[in-house]
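Subject: design request, 108 residues
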């Protein structure tokens, strides 16, 4: 998994970089086919905003989170990404099993 962090009006400290990397490692536990992750951290007035674009085979998944605390925004974003990745994985599993040859369907 390639991780790219970008900060807008914010300096990315090693602590934030490690926190984001550790939290995003949770995604790879559910789905191994994560190719690339682009994360943008930004500050707009009193709002801390984080956006992530996750590239998986066949699809790009985008999530964003806004909070007053950057660490809370990161936690919220990872929860959203986790749910979206699991939903994507289940869709792929259903699609794969629905297109199986007839001899494998129905237990024949």
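Subject: RE: design request

Done. Sequence follows.
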């Amino acid at each position: 998994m390639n991780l790219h962090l970008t900060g807008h009006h914010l300096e990315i400290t090693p602590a934030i970089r490690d926190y984001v990397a550790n939290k995003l490692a949770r995604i790879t536990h559910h789905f191994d086919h994560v190719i690339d992750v682009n994360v943008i951290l930004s500050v707009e007035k009193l709002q801390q905003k984080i956006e992530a674009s996750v590239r998986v085979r066949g699809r790009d998944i985008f999530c964003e989170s806004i909070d007053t605390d950057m660490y809370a925004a990161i936690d919220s974003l990872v929860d959203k990404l986790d749910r979206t990745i699991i939903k994507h994985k289940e869709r792929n599993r259903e699609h794969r099993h629905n297109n199986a040859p007839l001899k494998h369907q129905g237990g024949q």
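The chain is about 45% helix and 35% strand.
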